[in-house]
Amino acid sequence: MNVSPITIIMDALWTNAGSQPIADIVKANVHRTDVGEAGTRDWTDALLTDLVAQCDLVDHSASPTAIPNESQLGTLLSAAGLTIRYVTETGVFKAYLGAFEAVFLRVLRLPHWSKPYLGLKMVALRGCTRLMECFESTSASLAPVLLTWTHELLAQCALDMLSTQLLFRPTCELLNVLVQTQPSTASTLLTEVLPEILQLHTSVFVNSTDYQNDIVEWNTLANVVLDQLFPALPSARQLMTATASSTPAFGFAARVPAARWVAFLETLPLTADVASISTILPALYRLTVIEYAGDIANETFNRFLSHLLDSMRALPWDHPSQLELGHGLVESVRDLLIAGHLQQHALAPDAAVFATLEALVYKLPELAKDRLFKAVKAMLPDLRDATTEAFIALMYCMGSRFWDLQAAFVRDVAMKLADPLVFGDVLFVLQPTSDANHEPYERLVATTVAMLQKGLHQLHRYSKPMAQRLLGSVGHTVAGAGPFMAPYVADVAETLVDLYGTGSSSLQDLFVVALTHLYVACPFTDTDLVHGYCDILSSSVLDVKASGLESLAILLAKDASWVLGALPATFWTAFLETCTDALTSFPVFEEDVPLIVLQLQLCTQLLPHQTNMDVWNTNVLLPMVAHFHEIVRDEGLIEVQEASQRLLDALQRRSTV
């Protein structure tokens, strides 16, 4: 009797599995470049035939507690998952996806939950995960079946520790992949699956340290689900202009009554050793805001914040791994405070938050010197930045109540953070209402400007990153102080004009931006100062620097007549030459796109203010832009295409007038 090579290989899967890795056998049959389409079909046909035969044996001969062919079926299921992962001829293999899906689901639907069945279901579950990872289209058909099966599993986990040990984490991994390949399932997971997991957490997981890895896994899943459902939080640096976005309720509260949610809050101290739970607290707070009444949301915020601060204070900082853990905790504090601010959560002047963050600020220099942390020293700047952002978020969350802490912050903390940008946020948060006593605030503005001026005069002494932050803080301070900055604008601008050209060439762009912020806040009147600013601006624009182009666009929007009069005709001629050069240079490179978009925007802004240019616009610029537009459209440069279309429309309207 002749035995086919493939049958021999199938036999080898369970006879050689102990001595030869299954992955090697699979790779030899589907991953080599010489396998080809025919070889892939032969292997896959034989594998599926054996899988179906072994499943039939289970149906006919297995008992609730034993499976005679457990080893053979388990090995074949493993080979199936590895085949999905390693197959090279994916075009041929796609015809078999439904068959593999059917086998995996057949195993998952086996009616028993004893250890032999749990082992097979675990391998089948990972096969489903592999299918969705490697062939995303399968997730659409798998989703409803797997969600139904997940409910059965979670009910079993509540009764059986072994089911949890073997299947809970693989199920969370599968659902994690599902929600990323089928984002529409996120709301279903939130309202139908996470409530059951939360019940399992509060009734089972928190009662034993044996479930810490399970908590980590469901935290990861919840994080992915909530990320899909909620818009990203603004950064702390954006809070000056950020507003809360509206998100409708999902129906989570209908599945998780308030009492059960409070029970979850009470389990937080029991999960102090599970670092992953801190990462989901800001998103869970955002969920409570839209799902529960105000009191529940407030209690959630306070419990979460207390848990995070307790975890930070408990860190002994005696191992490098704690740097990453500490960083994660600080980021969660920051995000929770940002979410609280956006939801207008009234946070009292809580000394505990300030003191905990302040203690970390003082700890950072010690960590930098500690030889124990030498290998992870590069992570310290990120931790410092996260701490700074947490302080900024605290300011916004407290609002005017930050007055009670601002003196200590400015005196003791801000200098150690070495981030002058924070002063703009302090000024913005504390800016008085119209009927308030302005004197304390005016003194604070004067103090801040004095520190800013001192820093600018010492700009040459700072590192490049610090110098960049200092120059960037000019605009942030202007925005924060608002009209209270007016008495100081000319002095700061004069300092910048005098210092321009003395530092690194990489800083010159930031001088332009800073001066533009100052001018927009309070236009300069001194002739020499205006000339100095215009010289700096025109140089940046003609060098085709983004900072100069953006500044010119801002000025044209604010006061076009002033800009057109302040900059000489020779400048405008040279500027149009740079624009026509850009419109006639091909191909358009990706790195040039932002600059070209700005040039097109400026040309569009200038059109209504031009005189004696109609003939040139019609005969030269219009056909040039039309040709350029066709080319960028063919190249698929959407942003440039849209900007050129706006200019083209404006030129055509003007030519018909």
Give a description of the structure.
The protein has 657 residues and is an all-alpha fold. Among the domains are: 230-419, no CATH class; 438-561; 568-657. Helices cover 73% and strands 0% of the residues. It is built from 30 helices and no strands. Helix 4 packs parallel to helix 7 and helix 23 (489-499) packs across helix 25. The radius of gyration is 32 Å and the shape is globular. Residues 1-5 have low confidence and may be disordered.
State the secondary-structure class.
mainly alpha
Termini separation: 92 Å
Helix count, DSSP H or I runs of 4 or more residues: 30
Average per-residue pLDDT, rounded, comes to 91
**β-strand number:** 0
Q: Strand count, sense and closure of the main sheet? A: none
Low-confidence sequence ranges: 1-5
Helix coverage percent: over 70%
What form results from the Cα inertia axes? Answer: globular
Overall radius of gyration: 32 Å
Order of helices and strands: HHHHHHHHHHHHHHHHHHHHHHHHHHHHHH
Task: List the main descriptive attributes of the protein structure presented here.
single chain; about 650 residues; mainly alpha; 30 helices; about 75% helix; about 0% strand; globular; disordered N terminus
